[in-house]
């Protein structure tokens, strides 16, 4: 026993036991259950997870994922708030009211046989069998959950409709409160129908609940005829104290004219490395006779600097000035910005430069580890 809280003997000997001090001095908080109080079931689960090596830092991540799922539900806020409060064990259930000495009887009013906590009041009570009847909720008779939060996580992980579940839970709790206050309310056997009708109404307003339209990924776009596109990028390895730049030149058909990687013997700041890559890209294009070219990178800061040609006291200002000198050797030169997904070839080359000494050039080719990025760009044209 530690400060009045039982701790499993085996877990107490483990150095990684995740007990944490609560805001109340001289008490401990057990983070594997909502109320922070240890019980045998949560202790046993902790020991099994510890034995399997999956216990470290898993609970906070799981909670964050669950909160994110709840607050992103495509339902009105009252349903989200209801779910969140139930998961946080903050509903005024009879058990909670008894613990706060507001009432002295924690027995459920529906079944008159079990203690009413959030899980029982909203899910486990035998008086709710008609509400949770049906194939969608058939796991109710075979799965057992420690608390309401564990139930929600199970529903989320197994692909059931968390929106419909939230609507039914709200209707159950609303009817429960009306019954306690002796107000007119629907019969329990009608709760399922009322919740489904409300859910159909919500779906009519938003036909695709919880379905976020995927953002279109940026793709590499080939330059106009008689123009070359020069993509560049930089990478830094603080551990190895090295940096690398990658450059690739392609024509209007997407065919590779040449590619280059160069390792730098110092881990410069990332913006400085990208500026070096831009300078090397313009220099490399001039060496290969690309008279008309578009120089493209995924750093908005550097692209804006290249276009402005005036960067004051920034650490990469001298490098931008060097690019301006080389730009006069082209008949036409412009600068373009693209997001990382459209600049994967140059990014792959820059990463390769970190492990490849000196400078290496491939004519009409790229290294093997970068080839599939080139092929993906060609397919997307």
Provide tags for this entry.
single chain; 381 residues; alpha/beta; Nucleotidyltransferase, domain 5; 3 domains; six-stranded mixed sheet; two-stranded antiparallel ribbon; 14 helices; 8 strands; elongated; disordered N terminus
Distance between the termini: 67 Å
Number of strands: 8
% residues in beta strands: 5-15%
How is the biggest beta sheet arranged?
A: 6 strands, mixed
Total count of helical runs of at least 4 residues: 14
Mean pLDDT: 83
Helix content: 40-55%
Structural class: alpha/beta
- CATH homologous superfamily identity of the largest domain: Ribonuclease H-like superfamily/Ribonuclease H
The number of domains is 3
- CATH class value of the largest domain: Alpha Beta
Taking Cα atoms only, what radius of gyration do you get, to the nearest Å? 31 Å
Question: Spans with pLDDT under 50 lasting ≥5 residues?
Answer: 1-27, 54-58, 208-214
- The spatial strand order of the largest sheet comes to 7-6-3-4-5-8
List the helices and strands and how they pair.
Blueprint: H1 9-12, E1 20-21, E2 28-29, H2 40-52, H3 58-71, H4 77-87, H5 94-99, H6 118-124, H7 148-157, H8 162-180, H9 191-205, E3 228-237, E4 242-250, E5 256-264, H10 270-287, E6 292-297, H11 300-308, H12 317-327, E7 332-337, H13 344-353, E8 359-363, H14 368-380
Parallel strand pairs: 3-6, 6-7
Antiparallel strand pairs: 1-2, 3-4, 4-5, 5-8
Helix pairs in contact: 4-8, 8-9, 10-12, 13-14
Task: Walk me through what this model shows.
The chain has 14 helices and eight strands. It has a six-stranded mixed sheet with strand order 7-6-3-4-5-8. A two-stranded antiparallel ribbon has the order 1-2. Helix 4 (77-87) crosses helix 8 (162-180), helix 8 (162-180) crosses helix 9 (191-205) and helix 10 (270-287) packs parallel to helix 12 (317-327). The model is unreliable at 1-27, 54-58 and 208-214 (pLDDT under 50). It has three domains: 9-56, no CATH class; 59-205, no CATH class; 228-380, Nucleotidyltransferase, domain 5 (2-Layer Sandwich), CATH 3.30.420. The chain has 381 residues and is an alpha/beta fold.
């Amino acid at each position: 026993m530690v400060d009045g809280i039982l701790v499993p003997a085996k877990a107490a000997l483990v150095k990684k036991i995740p007990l944490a001090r609560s805001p109340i001095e001289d008490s401990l908080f057990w983070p594997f259950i909502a109320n922070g109080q240890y019980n045998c079931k949560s202790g046993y689960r902790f020991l099994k997870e510890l034995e399997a090596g999956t216990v470290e830092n898993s609970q906070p991540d799981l909670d964050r994922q669950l909160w994110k799922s709840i607050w992103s539900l495509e339902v009105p806020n009252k349903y989200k708030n209801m779910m969140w409060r139930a998961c946080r064990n903050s509903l005024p259930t009879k058990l909670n009211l008894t613990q706060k000495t507001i009432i002295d009887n924690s027995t459920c009013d529906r079944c008159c046989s079990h203690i009413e906590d959030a899980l029982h009041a909203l899910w486990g009570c035998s008086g709710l069998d008609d509400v949770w009847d049906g194939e969608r909720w058939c796991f109710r008779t075979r799965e057992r959950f420690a608390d309401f939060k564990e139930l929600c996580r199970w529903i989320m992980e197994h692909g059931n409709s968390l929106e419909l579940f939230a609507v039914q839970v709200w209707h159950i709790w609303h009817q429960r409160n009306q019954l306690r206050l002796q107000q007119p309310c629907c019969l329990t056997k009608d709760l399922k129908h009322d919740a489904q009708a409300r859910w159909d109404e919500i779906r009519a307003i938003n036909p695709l609940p919880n379905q976020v339209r995927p953002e279109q990924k940026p793709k590499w776009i080939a330059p106009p005829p008689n123009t070359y596109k020069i993509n560049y990028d930089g990478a830094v390895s603080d551990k190895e104290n090295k940096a690398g730049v990658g450059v690739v030149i392609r024509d209007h058909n997407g065919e590779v004219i040449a590619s280059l990687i160069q390792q730098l013997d110092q881990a410069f700041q990332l913006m400085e490395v990208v500026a070096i890559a831009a300078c090397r890209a313009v220099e490399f294009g001039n060496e290969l006779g690309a008279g008309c070219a578009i120089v493209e990178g995924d750093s908005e800061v550097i692209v804006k600097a290249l276009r402005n040609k005036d960067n004051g006291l920034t650490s990469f200002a001298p490098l931008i000035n060097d690019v301006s000198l080389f730009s006069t050797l082209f008949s036409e030169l412009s600068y373009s910005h693209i997001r990382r997904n459209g600049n994967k070839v140059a990014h792959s080359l820059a990463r390769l430069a970190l492990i490849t000494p000196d400078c290496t050039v491939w004519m009409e080719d790229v290294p093997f580890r970068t080839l599939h990025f080139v092929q993906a760009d060609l397919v997307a044209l």
